[in-house]
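ARCHIVE CARD
SHELF: 3
SLOT: left
DATA:
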Amino acid sequence: VLDDNDKEQSKKLNDLLDRAGCNLLTQIPELIDWLVIQYPTKTLVLGQYAYMDSSAFVRVSLAMDAIASEVLKERSNNKTSTAALAYLCSPTDVFVVPPAAESASQKNYK
């Protein structure tokens, strides 16, 4: 809860807001390096939630995939760090699965 009358709290929040954010298209190495070291003794869950219109969406999707791939690889090389992926799926998302997984899915759906 923010107190509008607390000038020190407001200054800290404004400082944070001035520094918050990143560019998924131009800061890929920096993001990977930063993500790899976050919460080293816990599982880091990466959510990939970005959208841009038209061909820019392909670029940002590839950037997110590259970031996730490298973070997963780097954290798997460290015995104390793990990472997992989270997706917010839409009806248009498609994922390739082995035939056995599709069959089990159909069987368990009933």
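SLOT: right
DATA:
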Amino acid sequence: RLKRKWVPVSVVRFRDDGAVPSNPPAGAQEQLREEDLDIVTHLRQVFEERPIWLRGPLEERLADKGIHLNISTMQKTLQMVAYLWSDGPWRNSYVRLGWDPRVAAN
């Protein structure tokens, strides 16, 4: 049986000081399978359209593109393009790596 180390998505708290994550967590790339790379490309496009997403609308947007993911694949691929807010006004929102809604102009 193949055992993989699970790499969690980067999580940010509203009152944390400093920069938001601009790169995927260490080890995230290594846990992807070849078929996941296409999904990462689609996710990058979706996060270029809009830098912040709730999970439900994100899943709907991907479904519009014909992409239906299980929870494990969603988590593995999302961390390549986004981080997660754990509290505050963006609680449970996935945000494009490097983009900070606290300092964004619009």
